[in-house]
Amino acid sequence: MATQHSRSAARIMMAPAVVLLLGWMLVPLTMTLYFSFKRYLPLRGGDLGWTGFDNYVRFVSSSAFWPAVQTTLLIVGGVLVITIALGILLAILLDQPMWGQGIVRILVIAPFFVMPTVSALVWKNMFMDPVNGLFAHLWRFFGAEPISWLSEASLPSIVMIVSWQWLPFATLILLTAIQSLDSEQLEAAEMDGASPLNRFWFIILPHLSRAVTIVLLIQTIFLLSIFAEIFVTTGGAFGTRTLTYLIYQRVLESQNVGLGSAGGVYAIILANIVAIFLMRIVGKNLDA
């Protein structure tokens, strides 16, 4: 049992890291709150004084605000559905004995380590280019007219690109969960005459509920701030402007730091609302 002296020593050793992390989080948050109440235009007069809640009212009343929120939630929801559904399927397949299993697992997980900008550029130029892209050649091979993915099917294209990048993460978490499943349960169910579908539905899927919850929570936190893929591919055009990209436009393109800071506060509020919703709906599995 830890003594009072050892606990005090542990607190002292952890204190620098805790202070650093708090500073890392609180300083940007404090500055965002501070500028959200000011009219600050760096290239057009600088600090023009306090505006109160005017920035918040202007940002939320903008015609681009609610479409950006809707686009953000559509992208997050689409990526979550694809990565979890395909992640479960891939995890089950990778758990089966096969030749070169280790190499296959590395290849499946590899896309997660590709930078978002590189991933988006590869998809944009190698796959979705309407003239020389792989999809265009496939369309012509089957006698169809190639389409411009990033303009005619912009939102599904973004969902596809982001799903490709996050699918390895979901697969890795779900594969770890499947490998912890007691094989005797599956063998007993098979001996009792349970079909593969019943074994999946009543044994494997309930066992994966905690892992699915973890994937949902972690991916949602990161997907709410998606930016690089949109910046590289569509530039926020064709209905792909998310809340994060709208904030970028207000801060850098319009040079209105106060208005962008108010948008940042709204983004924090949205992230917390979604996180609380997920914790209430699916987070109960963590306590099961």
TrEMBL record:
The chain crosses the membrane at residues 12-37, 73-94, 106-123, 214-238, 258-282. The keyword RNA-binding does not apply. It is a multi-pass membrane protein. Pfam families: BPD_transp_1 (PF00528). It is found in: Cell membrane. Keywords: Cell membrane, Membrane, Transmembrane, Transmembrane helix, Transport. Its main location: membrane. CDD domains: TM_PBP2. GO terms for biological process: transmembrane transport. One of its GO terms (cellular component) is plasma membrane. Residues 69-278 form the ABC transmembrane type-1 domain. Belongs to the binding-protein-dependent transport system permease family. This is Trehalose transport system permease protein SugA. It comes from Pontivivens insulae. The lineage of its organism: Bacteria, Pseudomonadati, Pseudomonadota, Alphaproteobacteria, Rhodobacterales.
